[in-house]
Write a structure and sequence with these properties.
The chain is α/β, with parallel strands linked by helices and 309 residues long. 30% of the residues lie in helices and 29% in strands. The strands form three sheets. A six-stranded mixed sheet has the order 6-7-8-3-9-10, sandwiched between helices. A four-stranded antiparallel sheet has the order 2-1-4-5, covered by helices on one side. A four-stranded antiparallel sheet has the order 12-13-11-14, covered by helices on one side. The protein is elongated, with a radius of gyration of 23 Å.
Length: 309
C-alpha cells in the first residue's frame, strides 16, 4: 500500500539574489517526524516558508495532503498547517498572550483553548504579559503553545529550541512526543541541534547549499558507517572494499571509514593480509553528515534526491 504524503515538493526552485534553492524533490510521509538538517543558510527555512506558502516558489509544484493548488492556498488547507518560525511575527508584539491567543482562535475552527491553557501553564508563560515584554524563551514557548492549540495536521518548526533553556527544551521534546502518540500529526522541523534529531526524528533530510541531498530513516543512517582501527605494519591500505576514508595515525596505525554493508568483507580481506583489527565503532551523527556533505551518501536514500553522479 502506498504511503500517504503530508506534503510533496516536485522540482521546487526559489531564486535569491546571491543563491538558488533547489530544485528540490522531497516526499514527507504522514504521521512521522522528518528533520531537515543542515548549516545556517543551507535553505531549510526557505523550504518551510514555501510549504507554509509565505513564499512562492519560482519553479516546481508543492502538494499538500495529495493536492496541488495554484496561487493562494485554500483557507481549509491553511488551517491544517501549524508554523513556528525562527523569528516571531511583529504584528502581535503589543498584544498580551491572552489577546494574541483570542485573535488566532478566530481563524481556526479546531482551536483547543483547554490545550492552550494547559501548555501555557506547563511552559510557565505569563498569560497577561505583553509579548514584546517577554524574554525570547517565553515568547518562543507562547508561539509553540498557540500553534499546537490549532490542532495542526502538519506542524512546521523552524529551529524550535531557539531561545529555550534546557528545562524548557526537555518539556518541548516530551510535548511533541505526546502529540505524536495521541494525534494524527506530521512534524517537519528544521534544526542544527543534534539532540533534537536523535530524540525526535524518524527520517532525516540533509540540506546542503540549497539542495536536499536525500531522505533516510534515522536508524538506517546511524547504521550506515563504521570506523575501523587497524595495525597495518606496512601493509598497503589502498583498494579495500567499502573504504572511503583512510587516515594514517602513526607509523603502523590506520583509521578506516567503511560502509556498513562491506564491513564483514573488509575484515576478511584484512585478516587474509595479516592486518590486525584493533577496534571498531559506529560514527556519530555529526561525522555521518560530514561524510554525506563530502559526497559519500549512505545507502538506502529515498526519492529522486538520492541520485548521485
Amino acid at each position: 500500500m502506498e504511503q500517504s504524503l503530508a506534503v510533496e515538493l516536485r522540482g521546487v526552485v526559489k531564486r535569491r539574489r546571491r543563491k538558488k534553492i533547489g530544485p528540490i524533490h522531497l516526499q514527507i510521509p504522514q504521521g512521522y517526524v522528518v528533520a531537515l538538517v543542515g548549516s545556517n543558510g543551507s535553505g531549510k527555512s526557505t523550504m518551510l516558508k514555501m510549504i507554509q506558502r509565505t513564499l512562492q516558489p519560482d519553479e516546481g509544484d508543492i502538494c499538500w495532503f495529495g493536492e496541488a493548488y495554484a496561487g493562494e492556498l485554500p483557507l481549509e488547507v491553511h488551517q491544517q498547517l501549524g508554523y513556528v518560525g525562527e523569528v516571531p511575527e511583529s504584528e502581535e508584539s503589543l498584544m498580551t498572550a491572552e489577546e494574541a491567543a483570542r485573535f488566532r482562535s478566530r481563524w481556526y475552527p479546531a482551536w483547543d483553548e483547554e490545550r492552550l491553557q494547559e501548555l501555557l501553564h506547563r511552559f510557565e508563560v505569563p498569560y497577561h504579559e505583553r509579548l514584546s515584554r517577554m524574554s525570547k524563551g517565553e515568547r518562543r514557548k507562547f508561539e509553540i503553545a498557540a500553534t499546537l492549540a490549532t490542532k495542526p495536521k502538519l506542524l512546521l518548526l523552524d529551529e524550535p529550541s531557539s531561545g529555550l533553556d534546557p528545562f524548557a527544551w526537555k518539556k518541548l521534546i516530551d510535548l511533541l512526543q505526546d502529540c505524536l502518540e495521541e494525534e494524527d500529526v506530521t512534524i517537519l522541523l528544521a534544526t542544527h541541534v543534534i539532540d533534537e534529531v536523535k530524540r525526535l526524528a524518524d527520517y532525516i533530510v540533509l540540506v546542503h547549499q540549497g539542495q536536499a541531498l536525500g531522505m533516510i530513516e534515522k536508524d538506517q543512517l546511524f547504521d550506515s558507517w563504521r570506523e575501523v582501527w587497524v595495525r597495518s605494519a606496512g601493509v598497503g591500505m589502498k583498494g579495500l572494499p567499502g573504504v572511503v576514508v583512510i587516515r594514517e595515525e602513526g607509523p603502523s596505525l590506520s583509521k578506516l571509514v567503511v560502509q556498513e554493508p562491506h564491513l564483514d568483507e573488509l575484515e576478511q580481506v584484512l585478516e587474509n593480509n595479516g592486518v590486525q583489527v584493533l577496534q571498531t565503532r559506529s560514527l556519530e551523527l555529526e561525522e555521518i553528515l560530514e561524510l554525506w556533505m563530502q559526497g559519500y551518501p549512505p545507502a538506502g536514500l529515498a526519492g529522486e534526491a538520492a541520485t548521485y553522479s
